[in-house]
Structures are given as structure tokens and as C-alpha cells.
């Protein structure tokens, strides 16, 4: 990640400065909670993607930094809301904002950060970018609701699962790379290539996330193993397990999803590790990686393009 960041170091510094300045509020608690979640760190993958996509098409202006900041704010707002919905207590290795403060304040500050993102988008004075992010945010909300609806449902299909992760996760990656291309004035072919790249990268990222929920290191991940299971989320390793011939394993997983319980987590970890579920999920992630790399082939060669390919490798080969 350091090598990737070095390519856009100055631009990323400007984004970080914008994040701090745009979180200003006359209400101290708003700024305090906003700073709390931003200070927790994170990979900044979406802002990095905006900057790299624009740079890959030779963009020289400042609007990419504005867009990168607005997208990071949208992402941050979804995290604040997600942690309330999921009753999460730990994110990035420390208490969530709702655990440190209250559910109500986390939701309301999330609303503030959402609205600040759109204030920044309005200031960019580009209706096409505004339309992209408005549609994207709407789809994210639909993905969240669909995930909530599917929680506790062991009959969720692989297709339904993929719809959830496309709307909930991949679509903001897609908007990041497409938005960077739009700002840079890319051709229709280049814009579509970067749309595909972002979608594939985001899907691969979430697939690996769902693998790590069963084999990651809590100290490195900053969250507890089995959190998704405890929330009754039917992720791909579980869906794969339930359609195999081992009825005992399928029954344990089905009951865990229905009960939203991690009581039999050790047995389920053993099942997904030995029955091919994690391997299958990783192979799906590798297909998305190839889709992303194929899309990059349509762009002119550049250092930014090279780093975008590295970003895909990072999304696939990570332990947190």
C-alpha cells in the first residue's frame, strides 16, 4: 500500500487535509464523532481509486481531490450507520462510534457526514458527477436494506448474495474509478473500462472480506472472527457449505444463520476450511481480479495504471 500511496502522495495529503477541514461543525459533538471515526484510519481505498483513475487519464486539476473526499465521507457515513444496524462494538481495532458515544448520535452524525459530502459535490458544479453519486448512494441504501432482509435467511441464493455485495460494497468502488475517469474527461470506452474495474475490485474486496471472517486474525483485522455469522449474514462460504452433500455441516450452518448465533463457530470454521467453501470463494475473487485486470488493458500505460493493478493484488492478498 505504501508503494501505491507514493504515486499520489501529494494528492492524498490534500485529501486528508480536506477531510479534516470539511468535518468542521459549530456543534462540537458532530466534529468530535466525525474525527473519531476518521482518526481510526482505514485503507482509504476509495479515495486512492479516484486519484489513480484520474491520474491514469492525465488529469491535472483539483476536482479529483474534492470527489475523493466526498466519496470517503459517503463511505464513513455508511460505516456509522452500519455499526448501529449491526450492533457492532469493534471496528479497526477500537470501539465503534456507537459503542463509544450512543446509537442516536452515531446515526445523526452519519447524516451530517452524508450531507457534507453532497455539499462538496454541489460545489463541484458537475451535474453528471452529482447524478452518479446520488444514484450510487441510493443503491447502497438498497443494498443495506436487502442485507437486513436476508439476515437470518439460510435460503439466500448465491445470486442474491452477489446482489447485496454489488449494491452494498462494489458500487462505491465503481463510482470512485468511474468518477475519476469522468473528471479527467475520459472517452466512453475509458469510462466504461474504469467502471468495470471498480466494480470488479469492490466485489473481489468483499469476497475476501467474507473469507477473512472465518480465517482472519482478529488483532490484525480489528474486528472479531465470526461477526457476520453472529449477525445471521448468509455469506458465500456459508451458502456454499449448505449446498454440499454433508448434511450435518449444512444443518449446523443453517441453524446458526437462523439463530444469528456464533455458538458453533469453531465447527463452522472447520467446515468451511475443509469442504472447499473458502477455496471456492477465493476462486470467485480471482475471477473478479481478472475482470479488473482485463478492464485496465483498455487504458494507456502509466504508473497510475500499474498501481491500480497492484491495488487489485492488495485487495486479494490481504489479511485484514
TrEMBL record:
<keyword id="KW-0460">Magnesium</keyword>
<dbReference type="InterPro" id="IPR000092">
    <property type="entry name" value="Polyprenyl_synt"/>
</dbReference>
<dbReference type="InterPro" id="IPR033749">
    <property type="entry name" value="Polyprenyl_synt_CS"/>
</dbReference>
<dbReference type="Pfam" id="PF00348">
    <property type="entry name" value="polyprenyl_synt"/>
</dbReference>
<dbReference type="InterPro" id="IPR008949">
    <property type="entry name" value="Isoprenoid_synthase_dom_sf"/>
</dbReference>
<keyword id="KW-0808">Transferase</keyword>
<dbReference type="GO" id="GO:0106350">
    <property type="term" value="F:all-trans-octaprenyl-diphosphate synthase activity"/>
</dbReference>
<comment type="similarity">
    <text>Belongs to the FPP/GGPP synthase family.</text>
</comment>
<protein>
    <submittedName>
        <fullName>Octaprenyl diphosphate synthase</fullName>
        <ecNumber>2.5.1.90</ecNumber>
    </submittedName>
</protein>
<keyword id="KW-0479">Metal-binding</keyword>
Amino acid at each position: 500500500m505504501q508503494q501505491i500511496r507514493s504515486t499520489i502522495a501529494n494528492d492524498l495529503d490534500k485529501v486528508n487535509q480536506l477531510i479534516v477541514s470539511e468535518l468542521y461543525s459549530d456543534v462540537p459533538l458532530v466534529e468530535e464523532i466525525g474525527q473519531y471515526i476518521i482518526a481510526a484510519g482505514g485503507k482509504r481505498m476509495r479515495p486512492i481509486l479516484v486519484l489513480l483513475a484520474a491520474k491514469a487519464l492525465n488529469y491535472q486539476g483539483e476536482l479529483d481531490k474534492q470527489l475523493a473526499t466526498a466519496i470517503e465521507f459517503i463511505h464513513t457515513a455508511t460505516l456509522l450507520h452500519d455499526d448501529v444496524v449491526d450492533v457492532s462494538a469493534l471496528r479497526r481495532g477500537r470501539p465503534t462510534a456507537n459503542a463509544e458515544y450512543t446509537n442516536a448520535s452515531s446515526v445523526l452524525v452519519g447524516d451530517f457526514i452524508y450531507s457534507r459530502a453532497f455539499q462538496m459535490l454541489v460545489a463541484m458544479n458537475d451535474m453528471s458527477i452529482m447524478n452518479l453519486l446520488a444514484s450510487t448512494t441510493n443503491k447502497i441504501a438498497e443494498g443495506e436494506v436487502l442485507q437486513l432482509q436476508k439476515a437470518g435467511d439460510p435460503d439466500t441464493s448465491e445470486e442474491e448474495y452477489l446482489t447485496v455485495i454489488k449494491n452494498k460494497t462494489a458500487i462505491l468502488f465503481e463510482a470512485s474509478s468511474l468518477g475519476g475517469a469522468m473528471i479527467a474527461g475520459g472517452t466512453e470506452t475509458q469510462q466504461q473500462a474504469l467502471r468495470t474495474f471498480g466494480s470488479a475490485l469492490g466485489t473481489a474486496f468483499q469476497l475476501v472480506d467474507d473469507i477473512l471472517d472465518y480465517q482472519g486474525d482478529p488483532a490484525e483485522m480489528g474486528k472479531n472472527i465470526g461477526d457476520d455469522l453472529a449477525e445471521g449474514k448468509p455469506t458465500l462460504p456459508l451458502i456454499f457449505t449448505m449446498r454440499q452433500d454433508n448434511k450435518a455441516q449444512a444443518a449446523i450452518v443453517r441453524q446458526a444463520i437462523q439463530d444469528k448465533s456464533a455458538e458453533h463457530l469453531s465447527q463452522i470454521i472447520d467446515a468451511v476450511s475443509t469442504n472447499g467453501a473458502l477455496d471456492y470463494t477465493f476462486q470467485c475473487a480471482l475471477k473478479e481480479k481478472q475482470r479488473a485486470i482485463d478492464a485496465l488493458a483498455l487504458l494507456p500505460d502509466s504508473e497510475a495504471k500499474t498501481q491500480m493493478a497492484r491495488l487489485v493484488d492488495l485487495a486479494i492478498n490481504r489479511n485484514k
